[in-house]
Write a structure and sequence with these properties.
- By secondary structure, the chain is mostly helical.
- The chain is 62% helix and 4% strand.
- It is built from twelve helices and three strands; from the N terminus they run H-H-E-E-H-E-H-H-H-H-H-H-H-H-H.
- Helix 2 crosses helix 10 and helix 3 packs across helix 4.
- The radius of gyration is 23 Å and the shape is elongated.
Length: 273
């Protein structure tokens, strides 16, 4: 009954990986009792424009991470004619004056020529000190998931996915090479049990991340959910709030959407950043 040995390996992989995922998810959900009215700001400009519990930059970070913050700043600069965005994925600085640290870091990412690919600017601005400081402040406030916890969850999910594939492979081997007199249906049912466990863990992990990205803690997700009224406003604030929360899918102009996505076209832009 060599298939029993395969079953033991399958259960071991399922239990170890699922335990790791549960612990990682619990750690990521730990900062759930953050301040109900957003983080304290020693300098209001640090968080970007906004008069609510979350500034636009804070909402963008919690919903989509540093790249979303860079996209929001590019869109705001384009709206004020500080720079021009081309559908080809290139941008040109018109007026190198930003109203806050994030915008200034975006403009500085263009270099002395004042013209660069949007994708390169986005990457540089996302890693700039103002955006890193924004993430750290949100983490201290209990609204953002710490980077270490977020990476641990991602690694744990990959481990559960690997365990799922291992179970399928071991189960197939056990069925295709059964011992004399072994009941193949019974073997399939035994391997179905650890498979159900891993698939259920993956499903719960996906459900827990809905509807916001893993950048936001439960407290941050609650504040993001409170921005629904701002997103429905017909003014610029409402438009930028929608982009902060939903990403490029909320950009109305298809040419502008293609430009912000780096010239990959509206189809790629729709997936959002």
């Amino acid at each position: 009954m060599f298939w029993v040995l395969f079953l033991l390996f399958a259960w071991a992989g399922a239990l170890v990986s699922c335990t790791r995922l549960v612990r990682a998810a619990a750690q990521a959900a730990g900062p759930g009792d953050g301040p109900p009215h957003g983080p304290d700001r020693t300098d209001p400009s640090d968080g970007g424009p906004g008069d609510g519990p979350l500034s636009l930059y804070e909402a963008a970070y919690l919903a989509g991470g540093p790249q979303r913050v860079a996209v929001l700043a590019l869109l705001a600069l384009h709206g004020r004619r500080r720079l021009l965005l081309a559908r080809t994925g290139w941008a040109t600085v018109v007026d190198p004056v930003g109203r806050d640290e994030v915008e200034r870091s975006v403009l500085a990412a263009f270099g002395p020529d004042g013209r660069s690919a949007v994708a390169a600017v986005r990457t540089a601005a996302a890693g700039a000190p103002p955006v890193r400081a924004l993430g750290e402040r949100l983490g201290r406030a209990g609204l953002a998931v710490p980077e270490a916890a977020r990476l641990e969850v991602a690694e744990a999910v990959r481990q559960v996915q690997g365990a799922t594939l291992l179970i399928l492979a071991l189960g197939a081997a056990a069925v295709l090479m059964p011992a004399p007199g072994a009941d193949q249906v019974l073997i399939v049912w035994w391997f179905a049990l650890p498979l159900v466990l891993t698939v259920s863990c993956l499903g719960m992990a996906r459900f827990e991340a809905h509807p916001y990205s893993p950048w936001a803690s439960p407290a941050g997700q609650r504040l993001l959910a409170g921005l629904d009224r701002d997103r429905k406003r017909a003014d610029e604030r409402g438009y930028l709030t929608a982009v902060a929360v939903r990403g490029l899918s909320a950009v109305r102009d298809p040419d502008l959407k293609a430009a912000l996505s780096g010239g990959r076209g509206a189809g790629a832009a729709h997936r959002g950043h």
